[in-house]
């Protein structure tokens, strides 16, 4: 049996890093040979979680083909969010909770559910395979679900995510509300970050109606603090557009305490954006009250409008 | 809760019909409201199985949107093999054992495994959900696995398919080898069929390197009997090309007793076909020794060659 690499999406968030670690652990416990890797270094929130549960970040890779013939994707399925040479290797399995945009050459194993985090699906798979979750891995999976659901407040949150958080918090032996808020705040330390880090840190690319749309997002406890840097942020977004040929760059600034967002937009066309969210851009900005989920509240209305 | 329709691919084979019936039954047993339907009438093999296990064929639909907002796909995932208006409804779940070519607007449930039949995956799901399979449904699921794996002889056959066949044969209380050969032979009664029925009965469309490729397949116990009608078959294939804008029509004639096939080709380009199978077309024909599986032995080498 040959080794397979397991990894989450580029610009990894906590669920992308942790789901790779968790699924690799589960597969290895059931007789396969896999290694969890990552398509980037952990962000500050993920680093906080890794430190707290005494774990090491997965090795970063930039290509798969030099090492393996077969890969396993977690927390993503779209080629443009994956490793650069994903088209040259076999995708043998996918575990994911996103919408699908996938073409494969051969049949494969897929486990997808519309849950709040890939780590929630993995908890089910541990249970189905009757594999025990070590306490520190449970803590990381807990962190991933808290991260993706903003402490169970995002509209992507399902009943099972709530059960999963309680189950994993018990195994990890932490108070998830106290720990969760600490972890989310650790990810909102934006003052020390460059404008490029802010807009690109969690950015993903989407094709919408033939346009290349880049969407970044940051969580904060103070939206005004971010928009004090609006001019420099827009310059950075324009530079990314020029360099990568995007048509549009959207930057979603989310207040994790109030569960509201504000959108900053550079590029064209803006009409589908105004149509999607039912408002007019003012100074390139648009308030998105009650919006916290890119996946559920930003991408679907945009895709429909384009 | 609103009703969802569950259906297999157009030009349904036994697994497409049965997997819809089985998954709908499982979902209804676990509290959902679904109806199994079909995108065409059952072929003679499927009719034999339905008669043998005293079951009724699912109702045929031509569009989903007039009835429901949400559909569940089994035994296929590609839009071009699905209901005509699949783009206008939500795909809420998929159970499939084919390669993927799927784009959705929202997250969904997917269960895919590289097993010999979708009905084998469904047996796992019945077990996981601890739902008992009625004897006649077990007989139909057995028929579907025998059909897709040509009595466990196709290279798509996995160890689990063998276990599944034994498990289901026990529940259905049949000798699967005797029954299976009878059922397969019932599907090879080709003499009474028109050329159009032969080439189109199980045909699927694929996009390969920008070309529209239509691939039909029949099972027989006498390949020569089929090729006695070669001139009329080629006329029918050319008519389908003209009418539907295909670039190529491939017709795979498979001997279920010897597990060999012979290919008949109309359209262009033929170079990728000769490259894929390492031979020269002679009188539009090419022997494919040992080839029985369109999914595993025809589509992948063709896709690679195009």
**Radius of gyration from the alpha-carbon trace of chain A, in angstroms:** 19 Å
Oligomer: homodimer
| Beta-strand segment tally of chain A | 12
Mean pLDDT of chain A: 95
State the distance separating the first and last CA atoms of chain A. 45 Å
Largest sheet of chain A: 6 strands, parallel
Helical residue percent of chain A? Answer: 25-40%
Instruction: Identify low-pLDDT runs of chain A.
Output: none
CATH superfamily of the largest domain in chain A: inorganic pyrophosphatase (n-terminal core)
CATH architecture of the largest domain in chain A: Alpha-Beta Complex
Secondary-structure element pattern of chain A, one letter each: EHEHEEEEEHHHHHEEHHEEHEH
CATH topology tier name of the largest domain in chain A: inorganic pyrophosphatase (n-terminal core)
Identify the CATH class of the largest domain in chain A. Answer: Alpha Beta
Counting DSSP H or I runs of 4 or more residues, the number of helices of chain A is 11
